[in-house]
Amino acid sequence: MTDTTSPGVPLTAPLYKELVRQMRDALGSGEWKPGEAIPAERRLADRWGVSIGTVRKAIDELVAANILIRQQGRGTFVATHTRDRMLFYFFHVVPEDGAKVYPVVRLVSFTRGKADRGEADHLAIVSGDTVVRIRNLLELAGDPIIVDDLVLAAARFPGMTERQFRDRPSTIYNLYQDAFGVSVVRTKERLRARTAEPDVAALLGMPRGAPILEIRRIALGLADEPIELRTSRVNTQHHEYYAEIGGAP
Amino acid sequence: MTDTTSPGVPLTAPLYKELVRQMRDALGSGEWKPGEAIPAERRLADRWGVSIGTVRKAIDELVAANILIRQQGRGTFVATHTRDRMLFYFFHVVPEDGAKVYPVVRLVSFTRGKADRGEADHLAIVSGDTVVRIRNLLELAGDPIIVDDLVLAAARFPGMTERQFRDRPSTIYNLYQDAFGVSVVRTKERLRARTAEPDVAALLGMPRGAPILEIRRIALGLADEPIELRTSRVNTQHHEYYAEIGGAP
DNA sequence: AAGTGGTCTAGACCACCAT
DNA sequence: TGGTGGTCTAGACCACTTA
Fold it and tell me: pTM of the predicted model, to two decimals?
């Protein structure tokens, strides 16, 4: 019915793109697990009957996307959301002096409910489906700075309990990965300035009507599927949101 | 005096990194100008006596940094800040429906003054050096949404005039590039929520004390030298700041 | 010493663009 | 038709890690 010969849509994709697809499958199916090494480049070249250069080009893409990590002499590993490694990749709130400090997360509430229309759209589920709602209070250097509201599709996290969020050794995305095999790979964020709602202001110890920075995030997985909806409210009296556009020199 | 054999500091840099340095020089010196094609890969390989694969790897880096642009069949070109190409790379304010609209820039004021301590530090000049200060009002779809305050080191932009900012066919970074040979390559931004100052609120048609999004940007050039200090105040009633973390799939 | 990723080569062939 | 970038190969050698 449609014209499949239009330019920009080659009928045969490049070989290395096909390898990227195969690797994404291996990652999504759990054949290659977070933290583990994938087979050596020479072995992959043999397995797929291609040149080692082609394998390297495919791996390059997944390394650039922060999904694989190369370590010379050791191997190539599937990325994990450890506190030291990936936290600051997604966490962009810093003190105004720029130093990076680890947030301490305190669970405020954990409930289940039904997705409203907007939530369902963003999570690629149906309006009325069960969602898990979590509110966290994040402290930086001892002070309450951020209120996080998370919304998750319950179906994607079967058997999730409040306890998992209460005593957690690592990051929240590490919990998703370890306990549910769900890997957050990238996020889209929208920021705006608002006046704080009373409950948020109270948690942050701010006066009513104080300006707060609101961040609405969608976290996406390996296949670009939506995983988490997050609204963060930040007290930017002494903290800022940091962003770089364009790679380092 | 110092130990130069410490790990992570190889004595001989990879060949392709050396090529990257040579290319940055050619760009910085004006041998390769914005909009023009650089020599073909085969010619560069001959010129430097290396394999074409090594040249490609070096070009890859500058393409990833948005400094060069490959076009199959045509050549490799030096990036320009045209309205359609680079504007939305650095301009991240969008209507809440997500559509991208071109800002209309109105010059509010153009003055010269002396750099204070903080400005001098960020611009890598000396406190008291002459700076150019520009205030712009940006309209999106006819409404005033953003107030921009720019600070530039006068020495870097000799003979800059108010007129250049008043009737401008393209973007401000395009002006820097065309009229002064200064290319903005990347930016660092810090965002926070504040209450609007009276003059800013007036320009944006907001009530006193309304919350606004403040963006403090440092724009950096080819050699990572600071070029421009910019403070943007955004009315985020119906607009948002958009950011993506992690590449597209 | 063995195994890994990192660099570099010298070519072949293809897809695309201009003329 | 000739020139460009894009893909792919089959190796060699190096740097690094681990045992």
Answer: 0.93
Q: At what angle do helices B15-28 and B52-64 cross, to 10 degrees?
A: 60
Same domain, B92 and B205: yes
A187 touches chain B (CB under 8 A): yes
Half-sphere exposure of B127 (CA within 13 A, CB side): 4
Strand D: residues with CB below 7 A: A 14-17, 49-54, 57, 71-74; B 7, 10, 12, 37-38, 40-43, 53, 56, 70-76
One domain, residues B50 and B93: no
Question: Which of B64, B190, B195 is facing A211, going by the closest CB pair?
Answer: B195
Q: What is the pLDDT of residues A66-99, one digit of tens each?
A: 999 999 999 999 999 998 899 999 999 999 998 8
Please report, as a single letter, which amino acid is at residue A207: P
Residue carrying the six token digits 């559509």: B99
* Long-range contact set of residues A127-130: C-beta below 8 Å, sequence gap at least 24: A129/A153, A129/A154, A129/A155, A130/A154, A130/A155
Express each pLDDT in A196-239 by its tens digit. Answer: 999 999 999 999 899 999 999 999 999 999 999 999 999 999 99
Beta bridge partners of B71: B75
Q: What is the CATH number of the domain that holds B55?
A: 1.10.10.10
Say if A212 is an interface residue toward chain B (CB within 8 Å).
Answer: yes
